[in-house]
Design goal:
homodimer, 2 domains, Aspartate Aminotransferase, domain 2, 14 helices, 396 residues, alpha/beta
């Protein structure tokens, strides 16, 4: 018969999907305006106008066969050169189009990277809380995913745990900053700490341990003082997995890239392995029109002020109610400590007030919940009194 | 280190890529107008105007968040319903949106299908000549690809060889009609023969053997009497892998679908396995805008009269010279018997006349060469006298 693992993956409804279905049912019962679905991490602000302008102009100006034809597997040369140049200008790291591989979005960036690196018996490390699809993507390579804790106060990685966990089978450490679901951004000192440990351990084992940086939320930071450091400045064996889904509010169009640090050991061969992995997985080229749109709009963002306003409202509102929250420097998620030990029970209690939250256990982190604030601001304003009642029920 | 198999896949230049590079070098030396590159299977006619009109209208009419947002993993519901309805109207086979899974093009359709089906130790069967990436895609699942011969006169499958090759490990038989590289179309009797054998063997082994039909060239047929039969009418355990790349001349935009026959054994679970495979490979959803464009333009085609004219010119011209050719009912390839035993030597000899052909050995078929006629008609007109000289050199 067909493959049972694939069947299990395809037939199990995700928690977020279940919440979505519940919200639909509940909306039919009491009206959508009375249901507060904070479960889905979908951009809620439009793409910058430049995206649609760019689409229509490119379509008008480019002959059809060139426009809609295959690009090379790694992406259109001009697109890659443009994005690399902008990257260099912005981060001060020398990158060329030859180091970039355009992908069908973040998930593709990750599966291709894992397949490019993993050998039989290999291991990848990630810190909880983490985006649960990582486990699916790593499983697809046959490698093992080891989940390490973060500090409950700061949600920063537990480096002592990292030191203990590293072993000669670890092929890479995956980080995601700004983080889904905690919203935390790793500063330069944190990245430097990774670099120091991974360099030392790579030398000890005589093989590189790659730092894989998943950066779909890179541009979504809200305070002047928050800087998302470029990992390539700190450590040579880095691979950046990027997507334009969140920065340009176009997750459905599936375009992103893998940047292989040209300073990585044997960088050209590593890049070739990325190309090979893309090929075997069935990624012929990233969508051609949107490659060009991404290159033109790289560096722009959707209107982030909406997310900032939402974050401030929600963070202040919930801490005022007495909830313990991680201050989210970026992304569009707030990570909140459940007001009782069992976060599932807390989510159920919240449901009574029509507040739909995601259990942190789905992100490998017990006792917390995620609130996605990529919603209309008005939804948050209306939800705050309900959070207040929930807090009161717990005597906060 | 990184994965060596991926490195090998990513660093080995394909024959077609080598020819492309040679053509570039040679064009610089003697002028592009004097080099006849028949190696690349890229649509050479523009997309129907409706494609660009559809893009611009959808962009104008749809609010950004809905337009560029994620669709469900299996594809936008309206898109799937529309395509299924058109499929039913055209082929007279009941299909619903729930049987369709939108993909990032043909390669994705295939890798997802193979991953959905394959278990450890499984085997797939294909008939030579065949598109060489099939071997890469099957290798990605860990399954084995068995290549069986086609009849040299008709390029139809050798059914006696199929009977001998089938065994309880065979999970599926892959067919591709209209065929790359032979251009042959399998008629209803041929599909019925597959159905009879696979049904009998499935019963014998107590497990379904799937018929996987790769149909990117489905609409590219040139004679009134040529009909591409719908495999679902003949056999229940079928999966159709489709792409809009060739029919709508938009290969770079990466959109296609998998259609799981609702009459297949345990069809809902099979469909779930497809969803699971898409997920583990990193396909979140097919590009959203182009899903909608595909649904609107499904049933249209680029101007196929150009390919028909090219086919007629080339087939008649080459047979008049004395070459043995397979009559191509469809696709945009002509398969020609090399005028000496060693097709590689024949390709080298053709190069002297600036004719760049692909060795059939790259498609698993020795002694033949492929000519891609998706080029400007004028190129064929100019090339015919050179083919004539080549024929004379061989005393044809």
């Amino acid at each position: 018969m067909y493959n049972q693992k694939m069947y299990a993956l395809g037939s199990k409804r995700s928690t977020i999907r279940e919440i979505f279905e519940y919200a639909k049912k509940r909306s039919a019962e009491i009206g959508a305006e009375n249901v507060f679905d904070f479960s889905i991490g979908n951009p809620s602000v439009p793409a910058p106008d430049a995206v649609n302008e760019s689409i229509c102009r490119i379509v008008k100006e480019t002959p059809s066969v060139a426009l809609h034809g295959y690009t090379s597997a790694q992406g259109d040369k001009t697109v890659r050169d443009t994005i690399a140049q902008k990257f260099t200008q912005r981060f001060g790291v020398e990158l060329s189009g030859e180091d970039l591989y355009m992908t069908c979005g973040a998930a593709a960036s990750l599966t291709i990277t894992f397949h490019a690196l993993a050998n039989e018996g290999d291991e990848f490390i990630v810190f909880a809380p983490y985006f649960p699809e990582y486990a699916v993507f790593v499983a697809g390579t046959g490698a093992k995913l080891t989940v390490l804790p973060s500090d409950e106060k700061t949600m920063l990685p537990d480096f002592a745990a990292l030191e203990r966990a590293l072993n000669p089978h670890v092929k890479g450490v995956l980080i995601n900053s700004p983080n889904n679901p905690s919203g935390v951004v790793y500063d330069g000192a944190t990245i430097a700490r990774f670099a120091e440990i991974l360099e030392r351990k790579s030398s000890e084992y005589g093989a590189p341990i790659y730092l894989i940086s998943d950066e779909p939320y890179r541009e979504l930071v809200y305070d002047k003082e928050t800087v998302v450091p470029c990992v390539m400045k700190y450590y040579n064996n880095t691979i950046i997995c990027y997507s334009y889904s969140k920065s340009l509010s176009m997750p459905g169009e599936r375009v992103g890239y893998i940047a292989v640090n040209p300073q990585a050991d044997d960088a050209k061969a590593l890049y070739a392995a990325v190309c090979g992995a893309g090929r075997i997985l069935g990624f012929v080229c990233a969508p051609a029109l949107f490659q060009r749109v991404a290159a033109e709009c790289d560096g722009m963002t959707a209107d982030l002020s909406v997310y900032k306003r939402n974050r401030d409202l929600l963070y202040n509102g919930l801490t005022d109610c007495g909830f313990t929250c991680v201050y989210p420097d970026g992304a569009f998620y707030l990570f909140v400590k459940a007001a009782e030990e069992d976060a599932a029970a807390f989510c159920e209690r919240a449901k009574k007030y029509e507040l739909l939250l995601v259990n942190g256990a789905d992100f490998g982190y017990k006792g917390w919940v995620r609130i996605a604030y990529c919603v209309q601001t008005e939804r948050i304003e209306k939800a705050l009194p309900l959070f207040k009642k929930l807090a009161e029920e717990y005597g906060l």
